[in-house]
């Protein structure tokens, strides 16, 4: 079960946070371009699609818990191969966007397989081609780790979400368990070079930096998984 993660930081949490910041790897400070990220995912799209069952085994429970109550018109930002689609309510209308056409090809197949009424479009999460207040719920999973500018993408999610809507995020994060965190720090640089993903990032900190109002947040699986429910701050 996820453990609760209170938002009022204690002094211990403050210390831990600043230690984390000092430990930041280069991969947390710089970014690949959107084109480089798109190329990286084009190369692995087929492989990721084949790992569908594995993803269901490890991430399925978190996806279900975080997204099953998404309602109305739902935007899945950086939907990838469409792994969240199966956990969405049949009554919702889903729109998925991603920078990678190769990933979107699999997302289209997933919509067909599930018989869902939805659409997918190629788009940059940092410049969404939707007007303000277009979606009742904005969801995104394992994505802020790859966005060249995650704060810009979070601002866009906030902009297109209705003022009384929700932004639901599921992210991987730096572990609370020291050996795992050490391993993530050690691998961060090469993982970013290869996959364009910041292995040891802190998604809650990024959401707070973006100025979104965090309603609830929790961690699970030794802190490797973070779920966040945010609401637009405007
Ligand atoms: C780790 S995958 C996660 C995919 C999916 N959300 C999931 O949970 O399986 C990250 C996704 O982010 C997409 N992405 C990265 N940068 C993006 C951007 N600027 N705009 C839109 N999608 C982007 C990648 O193409 C990739 O599909």
The termini sit apart by: 32 Å
Write the CATH architecture name of the domain at 33-133 and 156-166. Answer: 3-Layer(aba) Sandwich
Number of beta-strand segments: 8
How many H/I helices?
8
> What would you call the shape?
globular
User: By helix and strand content, what is the structural category?
Assistant: alpha/beta
Order of helices and strands: EHHHHEEHEEHEHHEE
Helix content: 40-55%
Any low-confidence stretches, pLDDT <50, length ≥5?
A: 1-27
The molecules bound to the chains, other than polymers, are: S-adenosylmethionine
Which strand order spans the largest sheet, edge to edge or round the barrel?
1-7-8-6-5-2-3-4
Please tell me the overall pLDDT.
Answer: 89
Fold and architecture overview:
With 234 residues, the protein is α/β, with parallel strands linked by helices. The chain has a domain at 33-133 and 156-166: Rossmann fold, CATH 3.40.50. It is built from eight helices and eight strands. Strands 1-7-8-6-5-2-3-4 form an eight-stranded mixed β-sheet, sandwiched between helices. Helix 3 (34-50) packs parallel to helix 5. It binds S-adenosylmethionine. S-adenosylmethionine binds at residues 34, 37, 41, 78-80, 83, 98-100, 103, 124-126, 141-143, 146-147. Residues 34, 37, 41, 78-80, 83, 98-100, 103, 124-126, 141-143, 146-147 line the site of S-adenosylmethionine (SAM). One of its GO terms (biological process) is methylation. Residues 1-15 have a biased composition (Polar residues). InterPro entries: Methyltransf_25, Methyltransf_Superfamily, SAM-dependent_MTases_sf. It comes from Natrinema hispanicum.
